[in-house]
Amino acid sequence: MKKAVVVMSGGMDSTLCATLALKQGYEIIALHFDYNQRTMKREKQAFNDICDRLNITKRLSLDVSFIAKIGGNSLTDKSMQVPKTGLSDGVPNTYVPYRNGIFLSIAAAVAEKNDAKAIYIGVVEEDSSGYPDCRAEFIKTIQNAINLGTKDSTKIEIKMPLVSLSKADIVRVSLENNSPLELTWSCYESEEMACGVCDSCRLRLNGFKKANSTDPIKYKF
After folding, report:
1. In the chain, domain spans
2. Does the pLDDT value for residue 207 go beyond 80?
3. Is 0.85 surpassed by the pTM of this model?
4. Is the N or C terminus of the chain more exposed, i.e. has fewer CB atoms within 10 Å?
5. Binding residues for Zn(2+)
6. 3-class DSSP state for residue 28?
7. Which residues fall in the annotated binding site for ATP?
8. How far apart are alpha carbons 123 and 107 in whole angstroms?
């Protein structure tokens, strides 16, 4: 069976990627990263719950806490405020410097070791808050670099099936494909119940609203 590494945060985007990869006939190697983010424990719980639901047995959770030591973002630095206005001049402080580049480099090593020919990542250009490492151009470029830096027989394709979708589109496609939205976690700040006011919660809630659907997770309000 053909294999794919799926980078899975526990959020709705990467969960839909895993759901689609399964429907496309891939055996999945689920890859999760702990980088001392504010909601690290809750995200890992979501990751494991989702893998259980989707019957993904091959899973790998890696400690990449050096990312927090680099700092420069509100997801790992609790002295910084997580944005709640949706307004930002340029890239918001929730951008973790080059995170997707780091994740994809590690995913490439996992893929090469396991003879996987695809890597799925849930990047979204429209609703990515302006993160530079969510652009399709960047993903295509790093794919070329990965294939230059691996064995000739490796030939990895990075798949980004959501890159041109809106959050409302992602909700709709998730519902159409029975992706387990109720197990996903998007909140940047809270691990008990989603705060509902951080930029990630706001994007998610707005996506459900535009899709004329109700978010199945609980919020504080």
Report:
1. 3-210
2. yes
3. yes
4. N
5. 187, 195, 198, 201
6. strand
7. 8-18
8. 14
